[in-house]
Amino acid sequence: MTGFVVLAPCTDAADRHRFEQVAAAFARRDRSTEATRHERGASLSCFRPPSVAALGPVPWRDERLSVVAHGRLDRRDVLRRELARAGTTGQADSDIELIAAAYRAWGVEAPLHLHGDFSFVVWDGRSGELFAARDRVGAKALFLGQRSGSLALATEPNPIVELPGFGRAVNEGFCAEYLADAMTSTTETVFADVQRLPRGHALHRRADGSLRTWRYWDFDLHAPAPAGSPEDLAEELAGRTEQAVARCLRGARTAPPVSGGAAAPELTSCCGWGCSYPSR
Question: Are residues 208 and 242 in the same domain?
Answer without folding.
Answer: no
